[in-house]
Specification:
Elements: E1 2-13, H1 14-18, H2 25-30, E2 46-53, E3 56-62, H3 70-77, E4 79-89, E5 105-107, E6 110-117, H4 126-129, H5 134-138, H6 145-158, H7 163-177, E7 182-188, E8 193-197, E9 203-207, E10 210-214, E11 225-226, E12 231-236, E13 239-246, E14 281-282, E15 285-286, E16 288-289, E17 306-309, E18 318-320
Parallel strand pairs: 4-18
Antiparallel strand pairs: 1-4, 1-10, 2-3, 2-4, 3-17, 5-6, 6-7, 7-8, 8-12, 9-10, 9-11, 12-13, 13-16, 14-15
Helix pairs in contact: 6-7
């Protein structure tokens, strides 16, 4: 498994979002609190993507543990952004530990991460992979389940599908092909964040000027709310809503995520469809999102990390406006 995080809000140093929180991604790389049987550490690499200016992403990835990369710590201390997606990796047995296997994966203004595992990899998803252009398969970032999931998501985004439907459709298709898969996907364009909770933990905290989505809370402050199992979340600063992902008809009321105190009574989640259940189709693709009302709020070895595209010069500050 992995741990991931997305933040949209006022510009903050990368270090304040990734390294400094008491239970942030740095702590989650060696002492995660909610892995649900998916390993004990996340030390097989990490990555951080951010927006130094609208429509332009920067990315730093490495194949070493987050705590072992002093170069990233130095970059993170002097680089600010108001939109970020970051992840620490726990590689599935048999998959390579290389920097290109670490999220976030990118294409244009998109950043993407996967927390989980595709069961039966790779045989279970051969049929889905066959739907992709050959060039996409030949240019995967790495021969991993997460890289293939990104290729599936990217292909649908390029075809013009709305991002929320893209994530719901990919989750539904993969869950049908590989039952039991854990498919927490995280996607942002720097303006909105999209995420799925599918057989693993996901939490959200919304404030009037920001939204934070992660695998687990990074501090003990109030306001963190679990995203119900089998749901898709769409958020932007000050706003968030969730809706069930359907692979078969599910009559579950829409969920409104509060923005201050966590709910005191758990909400009954929509269970993912049992294996073998017939998949719904929209425009020939499996999966759909039930509509829900929007909740309107207050409208030290030598490091081997690689910085891609824009990078902060030592001593300089990047002020990254939120995405597109």
């Amino acid at each position: 498994m992995c741990r991931h995080l997305a933040y949209l809000g006022p510009a903050r140093p990368l270090a304040a979002l990734v390294l400094e929180p008491e239970f942030g991604l740095l702590r989650q790389s060696y002492a995660p609190r909610d892995m649900r049987g998916g390993g004990t550490v996340n030390a097989d690499g990490f990555g951080v993507g951010w927006y130094p200016r609208p429509g332009s992403t920067a990315r730093y990835r490495g194949d070493r543990p987050l705590w072992a990369d002093q170069s990233f710590a130095e970059v993170a201390a002097v680089t600010e952004s108001g939109a970020l997606l970051a992840a620490v990796r726990s590689a599935t047995v048999g998959m390579p530990v290389v920097s290109t296997a670490s999220a976030p994966f990118t294409d244009g203004h998109w950043l993407f991460s996967h927390n989980g595992v595709v069961t039966g990899w790779p045989a279970s998803v051969v049929g889905l992979a066959a739907e992709l252009p050959v060039t996409d398969l030949l240019t995967l970032d790495a021969p991993t389940d997460s890289a293939l999931l990104w290729a599936l998501v990217r292909h649908r985004l390029r075809s013009g599908e709305p991002p929320a439907e893209v994530l719901a459709g990919v989750v539904a298709s993969v869950a049908a092909a590989a039952p039991g898969s854990k498919l927490n996907l995280l996607l942002t364009d720097g303006a909105e964040v999209y995420a799925t909770a599918w057989r693993h933990s996901l939490v959200v905290r919304t404030e009037p000027d920001s939204v934070t989505v992660g695998s687990e809370p990074h501090d003990e402050e109030p306001g963190w709310t679990p995203v119900p199992e089998g749901h898709l979340l769409v958020g932007r600063p000050g706003h968030v809503h969730t809706a069930p992902i359907e692979t078969a008809p599910i009559e579950t009321a829409p969920i409104t995520v509060p923005t201050t105190e966590p709910t005191t009574e758990p909400t009954e989640p929509a269970e993912p469809a049992a294996s073998g259940a017939p998949a719904e189709h929209r425009n020939g693709r499996a999966g759909r999102v039930r509509p829900s009302r929007r909740d309107h709020l207050t409208d030290s070895a030598e490091p081997r990390g690689v910085v891609e595209r824009a990078v902060a010069e030592p001593g300089a500050r990047h002020r990254g406006p939120r995405g597109v």
